[in-house]
Amino acid sequence: MSNDDFRRELNNTFDQMSGSPSPALRDRVRSSIAEAPEARGPFWIAAVAAGVIALLIVGVLFVANPMRRPTSNVGVGAPTASPSASPNLSPSTTPDSSMPAFVCLSGSAAGAHSVATPVGKVSGLRTGTHTGYDRLTIDFSGGGPDGTVEIKPQGGTTFTASPSGMSVTLKGSNGILVVIHGADLHSSYSGSLDIVTGYATMVEVRRLEDFEGVVQLGIGINGAACYRAFWLSNPDRLVIDIQA
Q: Is 107's pLDDT higher than 80?
């Protein structure tokens, strides 16, 4: 069939379906049919090109996924670890300059390290006699001892000196051992370490120990070792009375 015959059949078909069209409508339809093959050409080429590009993009994404993001082997329901935040480590404060230095042992060296503690410094040993009793006064400078004081009456006047461990015998028939913890008898005291009083009851006072913050005094007594002890202040002092 020739082009003219085709156009003529198409016009007849339109006329039968829509009635008698206006001349202008027929001209527009004929113009559209005549130009349609030329107009559709570029649009079909663009659509095919877009489809090819889309297929290429999908292929690249499919190939890239297993290469860059491997599938996890963790089983279903297994917990996954989330990265924890780094701890905020702030620099430590500068040690106080008054703190003592660290002491370290090197090699096979071994030994003990004594820590200095506040102690009451004995500044005086004073004796006196009174009606009914003899008195021993122990003076302290800078405050009293920071430990306990023990007073122990005993039969006999034999004591053990420390740290030598030697036995020491005082005058008298009975004795009293005075143990002062947290004190020393050498920093502020320069008097006699063996006082022989000449009294009728309290006849001798002798140092037995002044070592590592412990002071021991032995008191030799004629008669029974009966005593009373108490503290006085301004200045700080320990008073021990021996009953006559």
A: no
